[in-house]
Amino acid sequence: MNPPASGSRHAAALVLLAVALGYWLVSGYYGKEILAEIAITAILAMSLSLLVGQAGLVSLGHAAFFGIGAYGMAGFAAKLGWPPALAMAAAVAVGAAAALLVGLVAVRLAGVFFIMITLAVGEMVHAWFLKDRAFGGVGGMSGVPRLDLSAVGLDAADPAVFALLAVAAALLVYVLLDRLVLSPFGQTLRAIHQNEERTRALGCPVGRYKLAAFVVAGAVAALAGTLAAQRSAFVSPELMTWTLSGEILIVVIVGGGASLLGVATAAALWVALRDQLSSLTDHWMLAMGILFVVLVLVAGDGIDGALRGLWRRVARQRGR
Amino acid sequence: MIIQLLNGMQLAMLLFLLSVGLSVVFGLMRFVNLAHGTLFMLGAFVGLSTAEATGSFWLALVAGTLASAVVGGLLYLGLLRRLQAESPLKQVLVTFGLIFIGLEAARMIWGDYAARLPGPAMLAGSSEVFGVVYPTYRLFVIAVGLVVAAVLYFGLERTRIGAIVRAGVDDRTMTAALGIDIGRVFFAVFVLGCGLAGLAGVVAGPVLSVYAGMDMGVLILALVVVVIGGPGSLKGAFVGAVLVGMVETFGQVWLPEVAGMLLYGLMAAVLALRPQGLLPAGPRP
User: Fold this and answer.
1) Of A47, A172, B25, B236, which residue is most buried, by most CB within 10 angstroms?
2) What is the superkingdom listed in this entry's lineage (chain A) (predicted)?
């Protein structure tokens, strides 16, 4: 489960960034919207990768924190009129606090129980925002402002600028999570994943490490949510449905679980595929469900290793 | 107050029908079937179509229950049986994928609108109980839940099959070593659980509306029931269902804004005190 060597990893990250910037140069208005969506999805998937790939905590309710970040952004910026940058920071803090609250209960449970609790809590949060009039109920909230970049002479209302902003945020999240994964903290998470009892016996406060991972993942998911709210200037309970949690989990599994770059690449493929499928048929979720079942059945536990091996080989070749 | 208690009990009995299968299958097979809610929805839709075609609620009840039992059985034989030896994670993911498929299939077959299943004529109107006037059909829902609970309790505690199932929950390897074909017991329990989910779907039809997506709301409540009741036990499913039904119902009336959070609070409180759930199955001390 060790991450690939830093040389090939950095090279692969640069290749990925170059592809994103190249696409930004040649794409039109719609392409830039898609690019921003890819970057946001990649941030969300990388945050879940910390839980699934490193700590072995499979959450089926991750969309809740994405939605809390988006609603936080809408609430602080659109409703209370805070400056967008401050609203973003506050929304991320709220996401972290919510993750702490949920994590306190969830990390006490192992394996399948953790999955069931996260799914249940995620849906409860969704149900709450559906009902709560203060946040607009089913209709959601509109008028979310974008970051004010006039100090550096840019206008975030321009899709081209916003796409760059989202890509920059994804890069920042990649760098931060990459450092975290390589740190002693990340090593401890992997140790817990591999043998929780032994790690506990070594004197490690396993629960606290899991909780910390859950909070970090929740905060980063909330950051993705603040960007999603700015992208569409609108938030609704749709942002936190169980289907989104499931989609992100597929992305993480397909991307190799522990590999941040693999997960980011899978996010790009996923958004592109969904965009194509949904233009072809209303029932694209059926295709998605079948894909989900087949992927898990055929590749299963091996998909992680197989894709990591493939990714490493590609990265090595590109790095030369 | 009495009306709310009856409403809570009605929801509790629907949840019991749904979660008892989920819980016992999990206790017996260590298998989490997240598609259990989908079978609930299937039962409701098949019941709706049957009622529209024949005009009989009772035929709908039979058809819905059978449809879910048969589809559950086919799923088990074709797909889920193979996952028995796999990691629980894989089981969860595959059955989660089945939820997507079931939802879209329901949309394609029955469309994207909500319908109400007509209740039986003989149960229309209201009756007086405990000094309040209450819809007769809802009393019927409570009765169905109580009767099924009683039958299951008798079956589990007093029959040979029940003894085998209990033994399987407690110690699967030992039970198999006694020469009992545990695979066949699994299959029977699985199909029974799926049938009960379908029954719950039809019974819920006249109270809740029938629509594509109705599976998720009840699945979440059923998962909460299983987690707080303690997986694998009939009594746990019953107690959990009553607790969740009451908290949901009274929460919606008294504190509608935070009803979802109340349930979370209940779950947190139970798990803080008893991480294994209130009445988990397993070797008795």
Assistant:
1) A47
2) Bacteria
Residue tagged 């402002």 (tokens): A145
* Average pLDDT of chain B, as a whole number: 87
Question: Which whole number is the average pLDDT over A52-60?
Answer: 90
Q: Is A137 left (phi over 0), alpha (psi -120 to 50) or beta?
A: left
> Which of B104, B264, B267 has the CB atom closest to A289's CB atom?
B104
Alpha-carbon torsion, ordered A214, A216, A218, A222, to 10 deg: 180
CA–CA separation, A304 and A317 (whole Å): 20
Interface test with A, best of B92, B110, B261, B274 (most A CBs within 10 A): B92
pLDDT band at B284 (very low <50, low <70, confident <90, very high): very low
Chain A partners within 8 Å of B99 (Cβ): 246, 289
Lowest mean pLDDT among A276-285, B32-41, B143-152: A276-285
Lowest mean pLDDT among A188-202, B46-60, B256-270: B256-270
Judge contact between A107 and A58, C-beta under 8 A.
no
ipTM over 0.90: no
Residue A304 pLDDT? 53
Closest CA to B148 of B1, B24, B34, B277: B24
Any idea which fold B1-273 has?
ABC transporter involved in vitamin B12 uptake, BtuC (1.10.3470)
Please classify residue A187 by burial: count the beta carbons closer than 10 Å to its beta carbon, then call 0-12 exposed, 13-18 middle and 19+ buried: middle
Q: Which residue of A has its CA nearest to B276?
A: A109
Asked if B260 and A128 come within 8 Å (Cβ–Cβ), the reply is: yes
| Helix ranges restricted to H, chain A | 6-26, 29-49, 63-73, 84-106, 111-131, 159-182, 184-194, 196-201, 206-232, 242-254, 260-280, 284-298, 302-319
Q: What is the pLDDT of residue A1?
A: 47
The CA distance from B39 to B98, in Å, is 10
Inspect the interface and report whether the beta carbons of A58 and B89 lie closer than 8 Å. Answer: yes
The full set of domain ranges for chain B reads 1-273
Residues B30, B252 contacting (CB under 8 angstroms): no
Model pLDDT for residues A113-146, shown as the tens digit of each residue? 888 889 989 988 988 888 877 888 888 888 888 8
User: Are A286 and B104 an interchain contact pair (Cβ–Cβ within 8 Å)?
Assistant: yes
Contact A9, A312 (CB under 8 A): no
* Crossing angle (nearest 10°) for helices A242-254 and A260-280: 130
Q: Degrees (nearest 5) of the Cα angle A106, A107, A112? A: 70
As beta bridge partners, residue B128 has B133
B255 touches chain A (CB under 8 A): no
* Paired tokens of B47: 């019941």
pLDDT at A116: 86
Q: In this complex, is the C-beta atom of A23 within 8 Å of any C-beta atom belonging to chain B?
A: no
| Lowest-confidence segment of A39-53, A59-73, B223-237 by average pLDDT | B223-237
